[in-house]
Design goal:
By secondary structure, the protein is mainly α. It has 2 domains: 85 residues, no CATH class; 81 residues, no CATH class. Helix content is 79%, strand content 0%. Helix 6 packs across helix 8. The radius of gyration is 25 Å and the shape is elongated.
Length: 191
Amino acid sequence: MQTYFGEEVTTAVLPTKRNKVAEGGTLTMMFVAGVLMIVEMSVHQILLGGFMILAAVIVALPKQSQALLTNFDKLQRKYGVNLYAILFGILTIVFVLDFASAPANAQFFNNAQTWFNSVFVPAAGNPQTTAVINLFFNVLRGLFLLYVGVALVQIIQAARNDEDWKSLARTPLIIVLAVFVGDLVTGLLIG
C-alpha cells in the first residue's frame, strides 16, 4: 500500500487463535493421511513409497523444508502458491492412482480359506466340502462387514447428535484390529 509518493507501508496480519487451531488440525489430518498412505503404498511399490515419504516429511515439517528452499516464502507470496494444497493434491492423486491400479485381493482370511480347501477337500473326497468352506468364509466376511457398517452408522449418528462417539468407536476398532491380527497370524502359521 502506498501512502505518499515513494513510501510504502506494509501491514502484518496477526494470526488469531482460531486460525492456529484450524491450521494445526489441518496439518495433523494431513500428517495422519500421509502416514497411512505411505504405509499402504510402501507395501505395494517401494519407489512410490519413497516419494510419499518425502511428501509427508515436507507436510509434517514445513518450516524446516522451507528453510531448505531459501526463497520459497517470497515466491509463495509473489505467485500465490500454497505448498500444502499442492502437496495434498499430489498425495491424493498418487493414492487414487495406486488404489485404482492395485488388484482387489484384499479379502481377510483368504489364506485360511485356501488352507482349509487344501486340507479338508482331499480328506473328505467330495466337492461339497469346498462349497461349505467357501460359504462359511463368505458368511464370516459378510457378517463382519455388516457389523462394521452398522457400527459406522451409529458412530456418525452419535457424532451428529453431539454425543460421545469415541466410546462407540472403541469396540468396532478393537474388533477390526483383532480380525486384522488374526488374519496376519493365520497367514504366518499356515504360510
